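Risk register update: the risk of archive-format incompatibility is retired. Evidence:
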Amino acid sequence: MNYDYNTQRKRMALPEYGRNVQKMVDHVKTIEDRDERNRAAKTVIQIMGNLNTHLRDVGDFKHKLWDHLALIASFDLDIDSPYPVPEPSKFVEKPKQVPYRQGEIKYLHYGRIIELMIDAASEMEEGEAKEYLTTLIVNQMKKSYITWNRGQVADEVIIGNMKILSKGRLKMTEGVRILEVRELIPPVKRKPLGKPHGKQQNKQFIKKKGYSRH
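Archived output:
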């Protein structure tokens, strides 16, 4: 089985938005219908804005978000942007780190980003894009739960938590698959034991040579 390691994934242009935002942008690029692609892009912009609330007082806040979207998409996203696509040279300066807030999070092991993604997914129209985002959310929730609690969890618990966080607006669809634990968190390979030393090694040597004690 091939596991998906962070070191094997492509480099993110803006890591502070997280791997899930990168996946959403990559998916938006694959949507064939232009109107649906534009709607999906606006949803991603909304999520990005919620992750950057500390920038809301900055001038041209919306403009900055669309510039970041272009960068995450490697300047290869065919949408009707309200702003012209910026030049790549504009992003030479390293972006500021997005602060992580902990207040008023219902489930700490899921984090605020999951809550924001659930809110955004709940507002989307039914279709492939919503199903894809729901799949990302429910599997990330399961991975976070297992990592935080260091134990197994029933899929029904994850689904129930998602319904609570979405206030019943987000439901599982037939196409959504919840991954197994071994797919979410690859098992750690243990190092082989070293050669025996001291008395144990001497006993094995005596047994191998056929010596006996008298």
